[in-house]
Design brief:
With about 850 residues, the chain is an alpha/beta fold. It folds into 4 domains: about 15-90, no CATH class; about 105-430, Rossmann fold (3-Layer(aba) Sandwich); about 460-705, Glycogen Phosphorylase B (Rossmann fold), CATH 3.40.50; about 755-860, Sandwich (Immunoglobulin-like). The protein contains 26 helices and 28 strands. Strands 1, 2, 5, 6, 7, 8, 9, 10, 13 and 14 form a 10-stranded mixed beta sheet that branches. The protein starts with 18 loop residues before the first helix and ends with a strand. Mean pLDDT is about 95; it is low at about 305-320. The structure holds pyridoxal-5'-phosphate (PLP). Pyridoxal-5'-phosphate binds next to α7, α21 and α22. Belongs to the glycogen phosphorylase family. Its EC number is 2.4.1.1.
Length: about 850
């Protein structure tokens, strides 16, 4: 009989076991081995059967068995011990509490469309989500007061299986929030909090708010699958990245506008301090800035029907009565925007008309639609660009590796026309990964924990033999997992048990193991390794130095090209001649990924440079002593040092993509055959010392640097703290500085087109100038009514090429003189052909920099 519906009933835990409820629902267990051991010890078989999910485990253990466990004093002691440990973790001062920085924010709102905290909360599709999960966990370890905000999807992301002929099939198992480690956000009377946002045609979208506890960090997840909603609106949070543009913008309005409302409700009901900084993790959540502008303009919460301000629900934001520009200045100061994609097609865009349809006066009362639409303006006048809005709503913005920062400065440079690309105010914070989540416990046991401070570990005390034994044990564990999964995958594809004897002998625990697992957009080039199938076969079957290869990854359900790539790999791997050395494992997710990062000797990555913003899977491999074999893209461009792995040479300048693939595939085969293989198989007393040396070097130098705690510390020190200080300044004295800044921008807007440099001359150069000779630059400037203190006039001196383009320029602020001119003496910075110019930029104490507003007047 098939059930009509299903729901989850939580277990009643007898007294001494009661703390297990807290231990199961706080996701800290996902990175705390002793807590996992405790759960496993309650019923090892049930633990394995439920896929290591404590909430399910507690539901699966029979009541009689629970009663028995409650009687066992030793069990009760362990439960009490772990509960006390969690309590200590949640309350003791950590790094943030003793950080020397003044003006750290009391709280930070971190908004992301997906969160990959654990496979038991399947709310992510790939790297972006897993990164967001790692960000929360590292923030928790450091004591950073983050509040995560996202959506709860009824079907997180699809599960992948294969048809017999290797075509990707998608399944969307529905989750029941009651069976997840979540708790409904309720008001003090116990009624669930509902967040409402107005939809067009007088409709209202309501969402309840689930609270997940990620260690110390609360994560709020909005869920529209409730009876209050009309049937189509119930489906707004049905799946991640599904549906059409309409569905997508509803999700983005919900996370942005509704997300801020959820944060307010959470702070009101829990007493948590309100965020002083908002971090927009990728453009999707950018509407959060609009709601914060609205708060400051109308100064009150929105009525419970979502239509217009009301005085009945208490507002947590004071300072009402700002106009749009003043509110914008205030919001920008406290906002950080992180962009994650260097692929123009990856940027979130909507038709302007669609956005106009949704950004109604009911959604955001009192705000001018035209002003809102202008925030997302881009080259195409009919398009609203979420990344452009993100940049306009944030005073601080960054990419996710040094190379990606530079690519982003190029990509968005048009918003700062007239400035050199490297002046574009987009910085970078290189991603990191959460060590306690991704590192095998054997590694931590052997080397100790790098700790939240990411201190470099000396692994020199560990012998080569021990390091090699560690790597070999992790590889063996992976080989078991591969066999289990290959068998399961074939059963799913329709094979029968008797045909599958061969799967017991798939892979070999002593063979060089290479992993390649990632989503399947074209730029990642899943099939580059198949460029020359014979050559790949030769590497796999080499008599002395064989390679075995694990491939995994999901294609977007709508991307048939991606599915065709998967099919090519599957068909190659199905061949009886090679299937013991190459496998495609379906359903890449966190639970599979872990085994790959632990056990692969080599982590392969061959994106089309520079389209990989950062990449984090290679970092997770490095945590475990895996060696990266990668194109120098994303993080690898800055972390490859010649001894921690291999760089696949890129044919960057080659225009013809086919030829470029040929060249790069060839380089890959060459490296595998001549460098990687020999280093792995060259043994003395059974130990490949050269290899182990690289592993040791990776663990000593890379392991501390790839930690998410390093990343979050950078965000705190270089982004959140300055944003909090800027926000405090503009907020003080009833937003006096925000008002001042808005007036300044207004003055600037009116005058700027008429600001002109009327003349430039240079004096003081000796007959034969040498490096260091002082050159006096003088300029006349017509300020069109602006005050001299409103601008900075700069002399720019640098090398010039034939086209008179300045390179490596030195800029020097010129001094305003009594006669109305501007002057500065600049020592000549370079030998050779030198040029100079003069420029006028805005200057205001509450701008993050003079570049920020994208305004510039150049001489000539
Ligand atoms: C780390 C991780 C990713 C992201 O890896 P990339 O190197 O950015 O492709 C994707 N999926 C899972 C399950 C991960 O753990």
């Amino acid at each position: 009989m098939r059930a009509l519906r299903r729901f989850t009933v939580r277990a009643q835990l007898p007294g001494p076991l009661a703390p297990l409820q807290t231990l199961a629902t706080n996701l800290r267990w996902t990175w705390d081995a002793p807590t996992r051991d405790l759960f496993a010890s309650l019923d090892p078989q049930a633990w394995d059967a439920c896929g290591h999910d404590p909430v399910r485990l507690l539901g699966d253990i029979p009541t009689a068995r629970l009663a028995e466990l409650a009687e066992d004093g030793a069990v009760a002691d362990r439960v009490a011990e772990q509960a006390a440990d969690l309590e200590r973790y949640l309350s003791e001062p950590r790094w943030y509490q003793s950080a020397p920085d003044p003006g750290l924010p009391a709280a930070v709102g971190y908004f992301s469309m997906e969160f990959g905290v654990s496979e038991v909360l399947p709310n992510y599709s790939g790297g972006l989500g897993v990164l967001a999960g790692d960000h929360l966990k590292a923030a928790s370890d450091l004591g950073v007061p983050l509040i995560g905000v996202g959506l709860l999807y009824r079907s997180g992301y699809f599960r992948q299986s294969l048809s017999l002929d290797g075509w990707q099939l998608e399944h969307y198992p529905a989750i029941d929030p009651q069976g997840l480690p979540l708790q409904l956000l309720a008001d003090p009377e116990g009624a669930p909090v509902l967040v409402r946002v107005a939809m067009p045609e007088d409709r209202t979208l309501s969402a309840r708010v689930w609270l997940a506890r990620v260690g110390r960090v609360p994560l709020l997840l909005l869920d529209t699958d409730i009876e209050e909603n009309e049937p189509d609106l119930r489906g707004v949070t049905d799946r991640l990245y599904g549906g059409d543009q309409n569905h997508r913008i509803q999700q983005e309005i919900l996370i942005g506008v509704g997300g801020v409302r959820a944060v307010r409700a959470f702070c009101r009901t829990s007493g948590h301090p309100a965020p002083e900084v908002f971090h927009t993790n990728e453009g999707h959540a950018g509407f959060l800035g609009l709601e914060r502008i609205r708060e400051l303009c109308t100064g009150s919460a929105v009525a419970s029907n979502g239509a217009g301000p009301s005085s009945s629900s208490a507002a947590t934001v004071s300072g009402s009565g700002l106009d749009f520009d003043e509110a914008l200045a205030a919001v920008r100061a406290g906002t950080v925007f992180t962009t994650h994609t260097p692929v123009p097609a990856g940027i979130d865009r909507f038709g302007l008309d669609l956005v106009r349809h949704y950004l109604t006066d009911r959604l955001l009362p009192g705000l001018s639609t035209e002003r809102l639409l202008a925030l997302g303006a881009e080259d195409d006048p009919a398009t609203f660009n979420m990344a452009h809005m993100g940049l306009r709503l944030a005073q601080r913005a960054n990419g996710v590796s040094q190379l990606h920062g530079s690519v982003s400065r190029d990509m968005f440079g048009g918003m700062w026309a007239g400035f050199d690309r490297d002046e574009v105010p987009i910085g970078s914070v290189t991603n990191g990964v959460h060590g306690p989540t991704w590192e095998a416990r054997q590694v931590t046991e052997l080397l100790g924990s790098p700790g939240p401070e990411g201190i470099a570990q000396e692994s020199s005390a560990v012998s080569d033999a021990d390091l090699w034994a560690l790597r070999s044990a992790l590889r063996s564990r992976l080989v078991e997992e591969v066999r289990r999964r290959v068998r399961a995958a074939w059963l799913e594809r329709g094979a029968s048990e008797p045909e599958l004897g061969w799967t017991d002998h798939v892979f070999d625990a002593d063979v060089l193991t290479v992993g390649f697992a990632r989503r399947v957009p074209t730029y990642k080039r899943l099939t580059l390794m198949l460029r020359d199938p014979d050559r790949l076969r030769g590497l796999l079957l080499d008599a002395h130095r064989p390679v075995q290869l694990i491939v995994a990854g999901k294609s977007h359900p709508a991307d048939d090209d991606g599915k065709a790539l998967i099919q090519q790999i599957v068909r190659f791997a199905d061949d009886a001649g090679v299937r013991h050395r190459i496998v495609f494992l379906p359903d890449y997710d966190m639970s599979m990924a872990r085994y790959l990062y632990w056990g692969c000797d080599v982590w392969l990555n061959n994106p089309l440079r520079p389209l990989e913003a950062c990449g984090t899977s290679g970092m997770k491999s490095a945590l475990n002593g895996g060696l990266n074999l990668s194109i120098r893209d994303g993080w690898w461009d800055e972390f490859y040092d010649g001894a921690n792995g291999w760089a696949i040479p890129t044919a960057d300048g080659v225009e013809d993509p086919t030829r470029r693939d040929d060249l790069e595939a060839n380089a890959l085969y060459e490296l595998l055959a001549t460098q990687v293989g020999p280093a792995f198989y060259d043994r003395t007393d059974g130990v490949p010392h050269r290899w182990v040396e690289m592993v040791r070097h990776t663990l000593t130098t890379l392991r501390p640097k790839v930690q998410a705690t390093r990343m979050v510390r950078e965000y705190v020190q270089d982004w959140y703290a300055p944003a909090a200080r800027a926000a405090a300044v503009v907020t003080a004295d009833d937003y006096a500085a925000a008002r001042g800044l808005a007036q300044y921008r207004d003055r600037l807007d009116k005058a700027w087109n008429d600001v002109r440099i009327t003349g430039v001359d240079v004096t003081g150069l000796p007959e034969t100038p040498v490096v260091g000779s002082p050159m006096t630059v003088r300029a006349g400037v017509d300020l069109a009514g602006l005050d001299p203190s409103d601008v900075v006039v700069e002399a720019v001196v640098g090398r010039v090429d034939d086209a008179d383009e300045l390179a490596d320029p030195v800029t020097a602020a010129m001094e305003h003189r009594g006669d109305g001119s501007w002057e500065i003496a600049v020592p000549l910075p370079h030998a050779g052909l030198t040029g100079y110019t003069v420029r006028v930029l805005p200057h205001h104490p509450h701008l993050a920099s003079s570049v920020e507003l994208g305004r510039i007047v150049l001489a000539g």
